[in-house]
Amino acid sequence: MQHTGNTILITGGGSGIGQALAHRWHDAGNHVIITGRRRQALDAAIAGRPRMSAYVLDVTADDDVAAFARQVVADHPSLNVLVNNAGVYSAEKPTAQRDLGAAQRMIATNVLGPIRMIDALVDHLSRQAGAAIINVSSGLAFVPLPGAPTYSASKAAIHSYTAALRPLLAGKVEVIEIVPPQVQTELTPGQSQDPDSMPLAAFVDEVLALLQADPTPAEVCVERVRYFREAEAKGQFDQALQMLAQYS
Ligand SMILES: NC(=O)c1ccc[n+]([C@@H]2O[C@H](COP(=O)([O-])OP(=O)(O)OC[C@H]3O[C@@H](n4cnc5c(N)ncnc54)[C@H](OP(=O)(O)O)[C@@H]3O)[C@@H](O)[C@H]2O)c1
């Protein structure tokens, strides 16, 4: 992936990891477009940044995504990088019958959201020089958190989808996965103050340093997430699962 001169679209760019990446890419000389559902958060994220733009978009809405894709390509024909970062998390107790609203929301946002965004923009991206699709998964894609089974499954699905897409788009669009560990954002209330979560700035620094490698790595795994990414290959899956079960 080239590091400057891109036009980068980041879903969920009004807060957390998306916003931090947006600001760092903008500082590096890229045009950055952010989307999300909250206008106020988007306006705050682009304030004082002339080469940033924001659009309100709910990635779970089929018609809105299709209309948005037409508009953003018309407004920014040089768009060459799509970052599927928008995501939601809910803890769950699947051991007794319950309301499945949260599970449905996670699948609609974390799985169908990126699939829908890619579908809407893949033809355009395939025609661009230096094109890339970057999907944000999670360490929980590789060892599930028992207290968040649908979230973990949604991230395992996006890992698999990303891997499948990579050879199909080879030579046209680079397909990259960012695999965050637990990071200090408000993905869950109070997590941005949690000393056991990785500080956001340190996470983004490490991600951007890994993205500088040539060729770009297919998976961007910071040091803190390697234990989970490699657990199965190293025969440590059961141990890692038991460890996560204690937090459930
Ligand atoms: N922080 C962690 O520990 C961690 C670990 C592993 C993976 N991740 C992943 O990293 C990504 C970013 O999360 P974060 O930690 O930065 O949390 P965050 O600050 O809550 O960011 C999530 C973003 O997604 C947007 N979003 C949620 N639902 C949406 C929808 N239906 N349509 C459009 N945008 C939507 C939110 O904006 P609006 O509310 O304005 O729509 C928000 O800006 C997520 O995919 C998350 O699963 C995070």
Characterise the protein shown here.
Helix content is 43%, strand content 15%. It is of the alpha/beta class and 248 residues long. It has a single domain, classed as 3-Layer(aba) Sandwich (Rossmann fold), CATH 3.40.50.720. A 7-stranded parallel beta sheet has the order 3-2-1-4-5-6-7, sandwiched between helices. The site of NADP nicotinamide-adenine-dinucleotide phosphate (NAP) has 30 residues, from α1.
Q: What is the topological layout?
A:
Blueprint (H helix, E strand, L loop, with lengths): L6 E5 L4 H12 L3 E6 L2 H8 L5 E5 L5 H14 L5 E4 L16 H26 L4 E6 L12 H20 L4 E7 L20 H12 L7 E3 L4 H5 L6 H9 L3
Parallel strand pairs: 1-2, 1-4, 2-3, 4-5, 5-6, 6-7
Helix pairs in contact: 1-6, 3-4, 4-5
Bound molecules: NADP nicotinamide-adenine-dinucleotide phosphate.
In summary, what is this structure?
The protein is an alpha/beta fold and 248 residues long. Helix content is 43%, strand content 15%. It has a single domain (7-245), classed as Rossmann fold.
The portion of residues assigned to helices is 40-55%
Radius of gyration: 17 Å
Largest sheet strand order:
3-2-1-4-5-6-7
Specify the CATH class.
Answer: Alpha Beta
Taking the sheet with the most strands, its summary is: 7 strands, parallel
Instruction: Please indicate the percent range of residues in DSSP E strands (runs of 2 or more).
Output: 5-15%
Q: What is the ordering of alpha helices and beta strands?
A: EHEHEHEHEHEHEHH
Count of domains: 1
* Outline type: globular
For CATH, the homologous superfamily is named as: NAD(P)-binding Rossmann-like Domain
Structural class: alpha/beta
